[in-house]
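ARCHIVE CARD
Drawer: 12
Card no.: 0347
Subject: one protein chain, sequence and derived structure
Cross-reference: see card 0346
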Amino acid sequence: MQPNPPQFRSWPEQGTLDRWVAPDGWVHRIYRMGDGSRGRMLMLTGRGDMVEKYLEIMSYFAERGWAVTAFDWRGQGGSGRLTANPFVGHIADFGQWIADLQAFAAQWEDKGRGGPDVILAHSMGGFLALRAMSEKIVQPNAAVLTAPMLGLNSGHIPAWLARLIVKVMLRIAGPSGAAWTQNEESAVRLRARQRRLTHSLSRYDDELHWRRNTPEISLGPPSWGWLDQAYKGTAALEHDPALEDMDVPTLILGTDADQLVSPAAIRRVAARLPNATLHMYGAECAHEILREDDAVRLDALARIDAFWDAHAPVA
């Protein structure tokens, strides 16, 4: 039985909130749950996310014996900021996040208990996980990517024009300038954001609860520099020959209704992976597949559990 929405708004008693220091001294916030009797799971979140959004999902897998670890990426959540404006999500180079992931994963792997190691990654985390796996930086027994950011969805704006706009705005506003400045807390903006993320009002309200009660973990629009890195990074990964040698068993869950990442890019990249399984949802599912209404969420969890059983069995 899954928790009711009010229970999402407090830290589970069985979890541990901790910190991890990167080789350059940058302090990251991490959270752990589960005894590891089934194996170990590293969760990689999306742009603007924080650990609090994933407590329900972490609890689900911890109850099934996974030792689940999640952390806030450098520059978001509880892991500090990289700009003077703490509301803007910025990174100068996605390579910094890859370096952080490499260092963290090395320590995470060293503390293994002999069971399978798996990665569950969402959106931007899915892109970073796939890049790291293709570069042999991390090599789990299996991986699941939900709505991975393998291309951006620019809506009615052609992709070439969107990239051109980003290049122009880099010169005008600078890399750390906010890509948009509308009031993120207006009712209209919040409703539009909710529709892009999930049909589940209770889960969306849960995120807003955390953001409003701990504003220091909240993040708003990306910077122009982040957008530039996202366009360049996803294009480079899609055309990287290393994808065809990335043999980690990978389940990709996406949705054709995604307004944030490109469903077409997900399909193209999945077709190039030699050991990937792809499932695409439809209009019933928005971007946050594991935070959707239960009809979608429980279906996705069942697919993930079956995938772990097939490709990351208990040793």
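Annotation on reverse: The first strand starts at residue 16 and ends at 21. The two ends are 27 Å apart (CA to CA).
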